[in-house]
Structure to design on (246 residues):
């Protein structure tokens, strides 16, 4: 895998397209399996709630049934999904890394929230093969995936490339609330090399999903640290936007 010590890496869109086509991941052009455009998806997602601080209950695939998304440790690296059944129960637990087809040597990090404020749950996904050393790897795949998502592989027909994997080796993703509006933002923990870690911010654009890297926003909300003492990541993101389940 190509690695670089450069802190700011501009990954050409053409190269990103080749990565998506050649790495064996389901691409953004795959259709949603069910429920796309169904008004019930908007209703169910807008009613998403927290079963506890690490468990979100809401409609992720747009079929009108509540699903259960669990995010142990708030890091986005161990996220699981249990699809809702007609009787209100939940099915088998699937890890996000398995659903998205991450390889054995790859790490997958995800964040779920209504990032574009359209009433549907979305996902930000990053897949990377860690360098295992001081030269950080860039992402094999980094996407913003507007909901609803395909329950087979979590793809979205409206997925777009995200620059979160261009600036370092993503280690964690967390939902955040940085600018006090009603739209979730994203915190990104990056290995940037030379023993350093950065927390970057991506601010949501109402109606337009997540924005790209912004120097002003990161000057205000970002933070640097070391591998031994990385910058703290938010752990209350979901509770900022979702109420406890009744």
């Amino acid at each position: 895998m190509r690695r670089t010590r450069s802190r700011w890496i501009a990954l050409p869109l053409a190269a990103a397209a080749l990565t998506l086509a050649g790495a064996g991941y389901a691409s953004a052009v795959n259709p949603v399996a069910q429920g796309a455009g169904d008004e019930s998806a908007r209703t169910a997602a807008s009613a998403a709630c927290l079963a506890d601080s690490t468990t979100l209950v809401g409609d992720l695939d747009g079929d009108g049934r509540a699903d259960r998304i669990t995010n142990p440790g708030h890091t986005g690296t161990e996220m699981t999904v249990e699809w809702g059944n007609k009787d209100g129960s939940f099915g088998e637990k699937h890890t996000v890394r398995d659903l998205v087809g991450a390889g054995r040597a790859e790490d997958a990090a995800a964040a779920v929230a209504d990032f574009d404020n359209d009433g549907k749950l979305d996902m930000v996904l990053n897949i990377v093969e860690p360098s295992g050393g001081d030269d950080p790897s860039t992402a094999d795949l980094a996407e913003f995936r507007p909901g609803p998502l395909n329950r087979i592989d979590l793809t979205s027909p409206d997925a777009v490339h995200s620059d979160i994997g261009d600036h370092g080796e993503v280690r964690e993703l967390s939902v955040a609330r940085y600018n006090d509006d009603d739209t979730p933002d994203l915190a990104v923990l990056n290995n940037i090399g030379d023993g350093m870690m950065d927390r970057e911010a991506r601010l949501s654009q109402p109606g337009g999903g997540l924005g790209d890297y912004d120097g002003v926003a990161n000057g205000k909300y970002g933070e640097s640290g070391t591998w031994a003492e990385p910058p703290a990541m938010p752990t209350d993101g979901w509770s900022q936007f979702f109420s406890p389940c009744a």
User: Anything to note?
Assistant: Residues 1-45 have pLDDT under 50 and may be disordered. The longest helix spans residues 13-22. DSSP finds five helices and 15 strands in the chain. The radius of gyration is 17 Å.
